[in-house]
Amino acid sequence: MGADAASHFQACRDHAATEDALRACGVPFTSLRNGFYATSTVQFLNPVLATGGEIALPADGPVSWTAHADLADAAATILAEEGRFDGPTPPLTATQAFTLDDVAKLATQATGRTITRTVAPDDQFRGQLIGRGVPAEAADQVLGIFAASRAGEFAAVDPTLTTLLGRRPTTLDTVLREQLPRI
Q: Would you say which domain of life the source belongs to (predicted)?
């Protein structure tokens, strides 16, 4: 969704540089500004899925978690309608943004296990990642997700995906029910 040279998240800075390079070429282009992938929430929940428990993650902000399948359908529609977008698309997002506190509640409902969320200081979380073998640069990139969400970079909710699909996008609740094991 994000393409901003000043983003807290490296991938968004990379997207901005790519869009700048495409503009400089002088040829028509379309850049898909996809919402943050809903299945990413499963990665955050993995440590507690089997038994329930507490996920300790850095402070965050609302994120419009968006289903891959919806984004694939939208991309197909955009490809089939050449010229529909000139340059970047509006944000292709679900209809609601959720915090990780919300994700924990939805995961509890989806799995039947109690999952709670606490806030871990950034430096503690980074240290845990590095302690599990994650390279420091990758740990910093993961922290960038949390910093960007705290800054509201992933909170946008836009009707463009709904319009492209001709229906309401898949909800985060549905993605979690499909992806998470139930007891």
A: Bacteria
